[in-house]
Write a structure and sequence with these properties.
about 625 residues, about 30% helix, globular
Amino acid sequence: MKYVLVTGGVVSGLGKGVTASSIGVLLKACGLRVTSIKIDPYLNTDAGTMSPFEHGEVFVLDDGGEADLDLGNYERFLDIKLTRDNNITTGKIYRYVIDKERKGDYLGKTVQVVPHITDAIQEWIERVAKIPVDGEEGPADVCVIELGGTIGDIESMPFIEALGQFSYRVGPGNFCLVHVSLVPVLNVVGEQKTKPTQHSVRGLRGLGLTPNILACRSTKALEENVKAKLSQFCHVPTQNIVTLYDVSNIWHIPLLLKEQKAHEAISKVLNLDGIAKEPSLEEWTARANLCDNLHVPVRIAIVGKYTGLPDAYLSVLKALLHASVARRKKLIVDWVPACDLEKPSEKENPVAYKAAWKLLKGADGILVPGGFGDRGVEGKILAAKYARENRIPFLGICLGMQIAVIEFARSVLGLHDANSAEFVPDTKNPCIVFMPEGSRTHMGGTMRLGSRRTFFHVKDSKSAKLYGSKSFVDERHRHRYEVNPDMVGCLEMAGLSFTGKDETGKRMEVIEIPSHPFFVGAQFHPEYKSRPGKASPLFLGLIAASCGELDELLQSGSVHNHHQSLAGNRPLVDPKSVVYYNGAAKKPPNVLAGVRYNNGGYCNGLYTNRYTHE
C-alpha cells in the first residue's frame, strides 16, 4: 500500500479536500486504484451533532456514517463509496483506546498518548486503507490521507506524531507528503510572498515530517524565481512545487496538477515509475471546459435556513451543477433565506421580505433542502405553496418534503393547524410524527441513517421514470421524523400521490402531485449520490422541468441516457474552444462559467472567491 498525506499550513480553508480529491483523480487516471481517509482532529465522535454554520454540511455515507463534507468531495471526484471508518476523529480514537483500557487490554500499563493513541491511529489507517471502496475486490493501490486543520494546531499533535512514526514504519518509498500552503500577493508590494510557506514548512519539519511536494495556493501561477526561493528554503525540488491558482471551477484542479506533472513527482517518491501510466483525463477535461462555456441560464432558488454559508448545502449545490451540466445549462443559484419569506411585523424592516419574494418569483425552479429546528419553517411552507399554486417546478428534500405535505394538508384539506410534531408537539393534526425507533435522549447517530430501499408504488410517476422505471432504488437518509401514516389516506384522496414507500409500505419516501408539471418531494437525500457525469435523477428532473425539457427527458426512456461520455463521437469541447450548441458549432461566449450567485458568495471555484459576473 502506498500512502499520500495531504497537510495544510498558514491558514485553514485553503482547499486541502479538493486538492486531496484531485490527487486521487490524477492517480486514478494513471491506472491506480485509490481510496481516501479524512482525519478531523476535533473531539466530536462524528460531524452529526455539529451546526452547519460550524462545519458546513454533514455528509452521509451508505453505512449511515455522518462525516465531514470532504468525504463528499472524495466520493464525487473518485466515484467511490466510503465507510464511516474512512473519517477518523479524535473522539473515535480516544473512545477506541478507552474501551480497550476498560476491557483490560492494557492491563498493568499506564495508557498514554504515545504510544497508545498514536499506535491506535496507525492501526486504524492501515486497517481502513485495505477496505475496497470502488466495487472491486482487494485493497486499493494508493490511500490519500487528508489531515484536517492547520500545522501547529494543538488538537492535531497526536496525529502529526502518529503520521511521523507511520512514515518511518512504511518506508520512504511508500509515503509521500503533499503540503498545501498559501503564497499571498500583497497589494502594496505586488509580489508573491514566500515567508508564510517557509514558516509553515519549518514547523512541519520540526514536528518530524518533511514535505515531498508543495502545493501552493495563490491567485496566479508561481513565478520561477518564487519557486526557486521556495525550493531553497523548504528543501523541495523545484519540479515538486506546483501552483493551485484560482480557477473558474474545481474540475480544473486535477488538470492543473497534470499540467505541472504532479503525477510524475508522486510516482517518483512512491517508486511507481513503470507501474503508473500517463494519466488519461479527456472526459474530465471536456466536462471542465463545457462547464466554463455554458451560456443558457437556469435559475434555481434554494430556500433554506443556512443560506449565509453555502457550504451547508454543498452536496445540493454539486448535484444541481451536475444536473445543469448534463442538460447543457448554466446554473444560477439564488439564495432565499426562509425566514425572510415570512410576513414581517410592523417593527421589522420589510426590505428583506420584498427581496426574498422577488428572488423566489424570478426563479425557474424552487428547491427546499433538509434542515432541523423550527426557524424558517413557515417561510419554507410559503415557498412550497407558491410553487404548487403557480406550477413552478419544485423539489423538496427531507424536511423540504415534510413541509410540502404540511402545506398540502393546510391548503387543500383545510387543516389550518396541520404541522409537524417536531415544531408543535401537541398539534391536533400532526402530518409529520416522530419515528417509532427514534431516540429522544441521545442526538448523535440516532436518526434513520444511511442507504435504505425505496419501492415505487406508482410505476408511471415522474420519479419512477426518472430513475429508469426501476421497481426500487437505494438512497441515503438522515431524519428522525416522517409522514404520519394515519393521514396518508386522506392526503391521497385530495390529490397528493405517495409514489415511493419503504419495504413495509408504511413509511412514505417520495411524494408527487401528478397534475403539477414537477412537484416532487423525497424523504431521502438524493444529492449524496450525485456524481459529475452521473447526475442524480431527481435533480436532473428539477433542472429539466425548470428549462421546459422534462417531457423530452422522460421520453428518452431513462435518466441514465444522460450519463454519456463527454469524450464521445461528437466532442462537446474541441481543442479550438468551439462548442456545439444544438448541433451547430459556435464560439463560446466570454463568460465566467460554473455557478453564479445573486449575492456573490461561494462560487464554483476552488475556494471562496466572490464572483458577480452574469
